[in-house]
Amino acid sequence: MSETLLTIHDLFQYAAMIAVLAAIWEGFRGGLGPRVFDAAGWVLRIQLVLGIIVWLVNSGWNLGAVQGVIHPIAGVAAVGAAEIYTARGNRVTDGSGSRTKGMGFAIALALVIAAIGLAEVA
Ligand code: HEM
After folding, report:
1. Is the pTM value of this prediction over 0.85?
2. Ligand 1, from 1, 4, 6: best to mutate by most atoms within 8 Å of Cβ?
3. For residue 122, pLDDT beyond 70
C-alpha cells in the first residue's frame, strides 16, 4: 500500500510539472483558458496530499533532513505560492490577474524542481 502511494507520488511529479508549465503559459501568454489555473492548482494539491500520506505512512520524521524535512517544505511552499498568487490574481480587477497567477506558478515551478531534486538525494 505505502509502496503504491509512493509510486503514485513519484509518477505525479510529471503531472505537476506539465500542469505548472501550462499555468505559467496561460499566465503570461494565454490561449489555453483560465481552467488551466484550476487544474494546476488541483494537481499540486493532490501531490501535496499524496506526499503527506507517504510521509505519515513512512514515518517521514525518520527519513532524514533532506527527504523527511526539506523536500516536504519545498513541496508545501510550492503549493502555498500557487494558492496565494492565484487568490491575489482573483482579487485584482484591472486585468492583470492572469499574470499574477502565472507569477505564482513560476515560483511553484522553481520549488517543484527543487522538491524533485531533493527527493532524488538519497
Ligand atoms: C508538490 C511537490 C512535490 C513533488 C514534485 C514531489 C516529488 C517527489 C518525488 C519525485 C519523490 C521520489 C520518489 C522516489 O524516490 O521513489 C518523492 C518522494 C517523497 N515525497 Fe514528495 N513531492 C512533493 C511534495 C511532497 C510533500 C509536500 C511531502 C510531505 C509532506 C512529500 C513527501 C515525500 C516523501 C515522504 C517521499 C519518500 C522519500 C523516501 O521514502 O524515499 N513530498 N516526492
Report:
1. yes
2. 6
3. no
